[in-house]
Amino acid sequence: MKHKSVNKPFLISVIILAVAGFFIFSSASLGILARNEQKFFAIAFNQIFFGFILGTIAMIATSFIDFKVWKKFSPYLFLLGVILTLLVFIPGFGIEHGGAKRWVEIFGINFQPSEALKIGYIVYLSALYAKYKDKVKTFRYGLLPYIILTSIVGAILVMQPDNDTFFITALAGFAIFFVAGANWKHIAIAIAIGLVSFAGIVAVRPYVWSRVATFLHITNNPLSSGYQIKQSLVAIGSGGFMGKGFGQSTQKFNSLPEPMGDSIFAVASEEFGFVGSVTILLLFIFFAFSGLKIASKTDDKFGGLFVVGIVILIMTGSFINIGAMLGIIPLSGTPLLFISHGGTALFLTLAQAGIILNISKSKTRAT
Predict the structure, then answer these.
(1) Which of 15, 124, 132, 213 counts the highest number of beta carbons within 10 A?
(2) CB atoms within 10 A of CB 207
């Protein structure tokens, strides 16, 4: 049978996450308002107009675009992502901040091109494996494409450096590779390569090892490298069971670094407590469950793999952020999607949700 409408549970999960994210961001941004009113309005405009409003329009638009169009243009989308991301290294286009070259400015608009690279990577990998079908079990049509495409993405992102984005993207690609029906020996090889690559990055990037060391010994440097984690745990702990109430976080004003960005989960936990924190986690889990259910039911292999890639991209990044704020994994600069500051990230997240909604309307397997 054909779905005449989009998958309602998934749509509901997206709407709730986006609306909840808007209110949490609004509260977290009050810390900036108290210090710099002009900066606050610039950030708020970016989040509301480019992220929330244009993102909603993009989600509606992509929900009406036949998802097979993405398959047709997948090589060009991947190439476009590569070219845009390489612009960060070209003077006049690339913007350096904090020692990293991750931003591009075109016609006065700043954005992170790695977001385009991520989606280009997963759509192209999904298209290849959908085309190869059972040949994915072979080295030539299975493991080799994954290694080549992931290496290209990795080389660009590690040079920036943007190791967190590389890890998230590679994991989404691995999920696609796994679901496509890869050979178990090749899966083991891919995992081994991933572990060796991670160890290599830690070895050659001192600041990565510093993050790991801080995670292992948080109390050793509570005023320097361990400051953000400590303040995050203070904020989360002070929220108690029910929280202090909307807008009542005190940590966001002076103590928490990046209260609208990396630390926004800590702000939400302080204001809404244990109940609110668990609710956020459950919303993301419901989002993932609904999305993966769509992937399992569609009879189009490309559509199913594409959904898996999008869901893993969003879930991995978001759970890395939450895990870092809880002190259970090393600190990263990964935003909490749907909620953290970043108009471009919210715009693309909603656009990707629209793609999943369109796929949910396709033919489904008999149940």
Answers:
(1) 124
(2) 11
- pLDDT tens sequence across 26-53: 888 876 666 666 667 777 787 888 888 9
Mean pLDDT of 96-107: 68
List Cα–Cα distances, 318 to 53, 285, 312, 340, in angstroms.
Answer: 21, 11, 10, 10
For residues 288 and 312, give the distance between their C-alpha atoms in angstroms, rounded to a whole number.
8
- Are the beta carbons of 89 and 101 closer than 8 angstroms? yes
Q: How remote is the C-alpha of 182 from its chain's centroid?
A: 24
* 61 HSE (CA, 13 A, CB side): 10
Distances (CA, A) of 168 to 33, 272, 312: 32, 28, 8
**pLDDT the model gives residue 364:** 67
- Residue 15: pLDDT band with limits 50, 70, 90: very high
Sign of the C-alpha dihedral computed for residues 213, 214, 219 and 222 taken in this order: positive
CA–CA distance, 85 with 87 (Å, rounded to integer): 5
Confidence of residue 150 (pLDDT cuts 50, 70, 90): very high
Mean pLDDT for the chain overall: 85
Interhelix angle 114-132/74-86, nearest 10 degrees: 150
Residue 111: CB atoms within 10 Å: 21
* In the chain, where the domains are located: 8-359
Count CB-CB contacts under 10 A for residue 222. Answer: 12
Proportion of the chain above pLDDT 90, given as a percent: 46
Q: Is 0.70 surpassed by the pTM of this model? A: yes
Instruction: List, as one string, the DSSP characters of 242-285.
Output: T-S-TT--SHHHHTSSSTTTTTHHHHHHHHHHHHHHHHHHHHHH
pLDDT at 2: 47
CB 260 within 8 A of CB 341: yes
Cα distance from N-terminal residue to C-terminal residue, the chain:
11
